[in-house]
Specification:
The protein has helices at about 65-75, 105-125, 130-140, 200-205, 215-235, 235-255, 265-280, 305-315, and strands at about 5-15, 20, 25, 30-50, 55-60, 60, 85-95, 155, 170-175, 185-190, 285-290, 295-300, 325-330, 335. With about 325 residues, the protein is α+β, with helices and mostly antiparallel strands. It binds ligand 2P0. Ligand 2P0 binds near residues 24, 30, 144, 145 and 201.
Length: about 325
């Protein structure tokens, strides 16, 4: 009876995945960097098959509400990990950040679980290390953005003419990144820690039949080529323009879908406008958002002290309970047991 325990970070997309087809295939490619401190830690124990396929606890407490999602995941990865059929999976998971706060907890959780399963598979096959491509493909079948979290640094998911080894089925690590960007900081302003009004799954669905979908997917393809060049060059101000355009395009899709919805809160807009203003005055600072109201401040490590002064002086008042998280580009999942 073996136990596999992995931590996996969340990630923040710079070119956004929004829209999917088939079984968890992306409508356009995306690029993200993996975080360092926003982590899930997941343990998997495989025991002889009992009646139930899965027993799930979250922070040690039984949470049967998550079991259907895990069962769907197991159905989808059955062809990749057939040995799981003979076992009941006992899973415990915990996060270092608030659940459903708009920080992609499904990404870190599904990545951590996939790393556990890939480790179990590697053991059976007599391999020393889990196959990260397999882990990424499994993670994708749990939650799209999760497939980007199985690697550290910068990651690309989705077929693109700009990278030969790219695939819709799994993410790949990006190797040609300017050294200054390997230490980028991400300070996440928790403007709204509540549950999301609209799930990402519904948001993705609303891209089907969206009047601007084709143009958005074309734009994302173009941005991937541009972003790959910018990540190599190391020009932060040029990268910043692209990061913001992507974030605002994502939210524009939400605001123009049928039904439409808006995840910005007044505090999100205030921060966004102030960041744009300060950058126009020469400050190396940009923002992005996930499918939520929280604003991720992205900036080079060299500016950290100044930006943190600004956070404490100007932005903390927009954060619910004054809460924010200081994170940065991280090195990916770690086995801890
Ligand atoms: C992303 N997001 O690229 C985009 C940007 C949120 C905004 O992927 O349905 O949880 O599990 O595949 O990955 C959030 O959607 O959706 C997401 P599913 P997921 O990070």
């Amino acid at each position: 009876m073996s136990t596999y325990t992995w931590t996996s970070p969340s990630n923040i997309a710079l070119v956004k995945y929004w829209g999917k087809h088939g079984v968890q295939l992306p409508a356009n490619p995306s690029i993200s960097f993996t975080l360092d401190k926003c982590l899930s830690q997941t343990s998997l124990q495989l025991v002889d098959r009992e009646e139930e396929r899965v027993r799930f606890t979250f922070e040690g407490e039984e949470r049967s509400g998550f079991v259907p999602k895990i069962e769907t995941f197991l159905d989808r990865i059955g062809h990749l990990a057939p040995f799981l059929q003979d076992h009941t999976l006992i899973i415990d998971s915990e996060n270092t950040f608030p659940h459903s706060s708009g920080i992609a907890s499904s990404a870190s959780a599904m990545s951590a679980l996939s790393m556990c399963i890939a480790s179990a598979w590697a053991d059976r096959e007599g391999q020393d290390e889990p196959d990260l491509k397999l882990a990424s493909e499994m993670a994708r079948l749990g939650s799209g953005s999760a497939c980007r979290s199985v690697y550290g640094g910068f990651t690309l998911w989705g077929d693109t003419e700009h990278l030969e080894r790219s695939s819709d089925s799994y993410a790949v690590p990006l190797e040609q990144i300017h050294p200054d960007f390997l230490t980028l900081q991400d300070t996440i302003l928790l403007i709204d820690e509540g549950e999301k009004q609209v799930s990402s799954t519904l948001g993705h669905d609303l891209m089907n039949g969206h009047p601007y979908a084709r143009a958005r997917f074309d734009q994302a393809h173009t941005h991937i080529g541009d972003m790959l060049g910018l990540l190599k060059d190391g020009d932060f101000m040029a990268l910043a323009e692209m990061i913001e355009r992507e974030a605002l395009s994502l939210h524009a899709m939400m605001m123009s879908s049928d039904p439409h919805f808006m995840l910005f809160k007044p505090g999100s807009v205030s921060v966004i406008q102030r960041v744009m203003e300060m950058r126009s005055q020469g400050l190396e600072l940009t923002f992005t958002l996930d499918a939520g109201a929280n604003v991720h401040l992205i900036y080079p490590e060299s500016g950290a002290q100044k930006i943190m002064d600004i956070v404490r002086e100007e932005f903390i008042g927009y954060c619910q309970n004054g809460a924010y998280i200081c994170d940065n580009v991280g090195s990916g999942p770690q086995r801890v047991g």
